[in-house]
Amino acid sequence: MTLFRLDASIRREGSVSRDVADTVEDAWIRHHPDDTVVRRDLTADPLPSDAWMFAASATGVPEEERTPEQRSALELAATLADEVLAGDAAVIASPLYNFGVSQHLKTWIDLLITDPRFAPGAQPLAGRPLTVVIARGGGYGEGTPREGWDHGTPYLRRIFADAFGADVTVVVAELTLADVVPAMAELRPIAAESRAEAHKLAEATGRAHAELVRSATRSTSAA
After folding, report:
1. What's the maximum distance between 2 C-alpha atoms anywhere in the chain?
2. Neighbours of 39 (CB within 10 A)
């Protein structure tokens, strides 16, 4: 079995989204020690900023009339789709940047949708367990001054659950900038509690998804 993991944080060290996603992955590996983990790091290996433009423009063009750039973009989209579809489960680690998702993650999603298997209505991940890890530098919960400012989490739910059909669990760590922003120093205990709760849920989710996939595989084999 295979776990697909995607990281979108621009930080390689000290990234909370990566750290919490590690907990999901570790829980999975403990249950499936011989399994494969397919990783895509959108910071270490950024996607070309113009790839979506070429892929989108190629979808209505006969293959023999496509430009080299269009063909290359569609091949990249197919590679991304292959990676995701190879996973029996997935974890997507996404920080909240400027109240939304990072440009790297948006480009990845846009490219993915140009592949026919991920076209609107296809539901390519129907029933597959998928964990979305969100790291938010500030506080966006109910009753906070910025309640409703997080436009990234609803978007990712819409894409992965409604558009792609995955069984989505969202794990959130808030106030992740408290340790490095002096003005947020008084919020550090709350930030630490949020991070601890995120790791707790990530552990439980990784374990539950591993058990779910194992059970489904056994049922299929028995049939």
Report:
1. 62
2. 14
CB atoms within 10 A of CB 62: 7
- The amino acid occupying position 167 is D
What would the pLDDT profile of 167-179 be if each residue is shown by its tens digit? 999 999 999 999 9
Choose among 138, 102, 82: nearest CA to 92: 102
Q: Is this structure's pTM higher than 0.85?
A: yes
- Dump pLDDT digits (tens) for 63-78: 999 999 999 999 999 9
Contacts of 58 (CB under 8 A, 6+ apart): 66, 67, 70, 71, 73, 74, 114
The rounded distance, in Å, linking the Cα atoms of 147 and 192 is: 20
- Report CA-CA distances (Å) from 28 to 2, 80, 91, 129, 173: 10, 22, 10, 12, 20
For residue 81, the one-letter residue type is A
Strands 36-41 and 89-95, by their bridges, are: unpaired
How far does the chain reach from its first CA to its final CA, in angstroms? 18
CA angle 201, 205, 210 (to 5 degrees): 155
* Residue 180 predicted with pLDDT over 50: yes
- Residue ranges of alpha helices (H) inside 98-187 are 103-114, 152-157
Q: How far is CA 34 from each of CA 39, 84, 202, rounded to the nearest angstrom?
A: 16, 19, 20
Q: Which residue in this structure is represented by tokens 């990530």? A: 202
